[in-house]
């Protein structure tokens, strides 16, 4: 699989009320053609900010990319002007947002919203773009697309609106599709349909997907690789199997323990006690130390480096140091 996108040491800061919030603190990962990479973590872990950076959507001010590179097809996008981004956004890299209502323009017919990108990026005529819009609506499972193309967002149900958002995102056959909690606002049945749809589309088009979510059930259904974020950093990354069946970072253990079990007798979730770090004054050591049941003195003093556990898995945790005591993951993390 060829590399499509490489993020290297990405650092994003927001200057708010005199504080310098370091939302993303040196994130490195790559995305291969056609794969789905899930970025998981609690809210405030930096996963949404990372995805916005990939779309050139960090509002400046108050935000800025302090350091790092976003290399897409060999070109670093960090230096892009807004004009450069306009050429790329929606064409090569597209995004599905969590809330379809804010992603759509309520005053514009959905057909027209799909056509915009096609006219801008693919230089289609109006009638060509309209034909393609109808095609796309059909493709995402909206019945009677010839009629619906003339309707406004409020005439669609929540699940149908999210399908429209996906149709817009896919209009120009993007190479990268970023989906930020794409099903969080939807009920469970619709959620499954939308995920199926995304998988089908990926099979047909070969689009690579970055899936941002806090829902490990969604991850298990969709992703081949997983990056776990905490406190603005990737604390562990690996294949789906490595992260689910052989996780090495205590934060990953905590996330997996808080995942609802398939055959559990109780539906009570075991949330990880404590709160995420204050990123306006980030800890110098491991960001998870205040919440980690295994924290040692070194954890508080020094950020752990990555230990490479396989060709595809690495974790930033002092427990992987050969001098550390041997710790077994908790029994609660089975799927
Ligand atoms: Fe816990 Fe220390 Fe590992 Fe951080 S480095 S996750 S505090 S054991
Ligand atoms: Mg978010």
Any overview of this molecule?
By secondary structure, the chain is of the alpha/beta class. Helix content is 32%, strand content 24%. It is built from 12 helices and 12 strands. It has an 8-stranded mixed beta sheet, with helices on both faces. Strands 2-1-4-5 form a 4-stranded antiparallel beta sheet, with helices on one face. α7 packs parallel to α8. It is globular, with a radius of gyration of 21 Å. The structure holds iron/sulfur cluster and magnesium ion (MG). Iron/sulfur cluster binds next to loops.
Task: Give the secondary structure arrangement, pairings included.
Blueprint lengths: L2 E14 L2 E14 L3 E5 L6 H8 L8 E10 L2 E2 L5 H7 L4 E4 L3 H4 L6 H12 L4 H14 L5 H4 L9 H13 L5 E5 L7 H18 L2 E6 L2 H7 L2 E6 L2 E7 H6 L4 H8 L39 H5 L4 E3 L5 E3 L19
Parallel strand pairs: 3-8, 3-9, 6-7, 7-8
Antiparallel strand pairs: 1-2, 1-4, 4-5, 9-10, 10-12, 11-12
Magnesium ion (MG) binds next to loops.
Pfam families: ABC_tran, oligo_HPY
Protein name: Oligopeptide transport system ATP-binding protein
Family: Belongs to the ABC transporter superfamily.
């Amino acid at each position: 699989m060829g590399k499509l996108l490489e993020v290297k040491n990405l650092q994003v800061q927001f200057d708010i009320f005199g504080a310098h919030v370091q939302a993303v603190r040196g994130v490195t990962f790559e995305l291969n053609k056609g794969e789905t990479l899930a970025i998981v973590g609690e809210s405030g872990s930096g996963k949404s900010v990372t995805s916005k950076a990939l779309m050139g959507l960090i509002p400046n001010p108050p935000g800025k990319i302090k350091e790092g590179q976003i290399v897409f097809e060999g070109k670093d996008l960090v230096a892009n002007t807004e004009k450069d981004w306009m050429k790329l956004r929606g064409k090569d890299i597209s995004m599905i947002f969590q809330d379809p209502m804010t992603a759509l323009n309520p005053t514009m017919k959905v057909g027209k919203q799909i056509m915009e990108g096609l006219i801008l990026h693919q230089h289609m005529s109006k009638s060509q773009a309209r034909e393609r819009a109808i095609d796309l609506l059909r493709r995402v499972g909206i019945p009677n697309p010839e009629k619906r193309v003339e309707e406004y967002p409020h005439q669609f149900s929540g699940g149908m609106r999210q399908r429209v958002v996906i149709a817009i995102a896919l209009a120009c056959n993007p190479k990268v599709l970023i989906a930020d909690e794409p099903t969080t606002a939807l009920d469970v049945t619709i959620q499954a349909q939308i995920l199926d749809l995304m998988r089908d589309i990926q099979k047909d088009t070969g689009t690579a997907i970055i899936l941002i979510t806090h829902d490990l059930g969604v991850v298990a259904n969709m992703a081949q690789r997983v990056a776990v974020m905490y406190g603005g950093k990737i604390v562990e990354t690996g294949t789906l199997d490595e992260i689910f069946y052989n996780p090495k970072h205590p934060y990953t253990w905590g996330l997996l323990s808080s995942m609802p079990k398939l055959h559990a007798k109780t539906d009570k979730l075991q949330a990880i006690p404590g709160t995420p770090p204050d990123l306006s004054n980030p800890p110098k050591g491991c960001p998870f130390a205040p919440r980690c049941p295994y924290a040692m003195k070194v954890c508080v003093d020094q950020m752990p480096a990555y230990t490479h556990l396989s060709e595809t898995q690495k974790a930033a945790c002092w427990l992987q140091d050969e001098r550390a005591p041997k710790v077994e993951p908790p029994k609660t993390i089975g799927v």
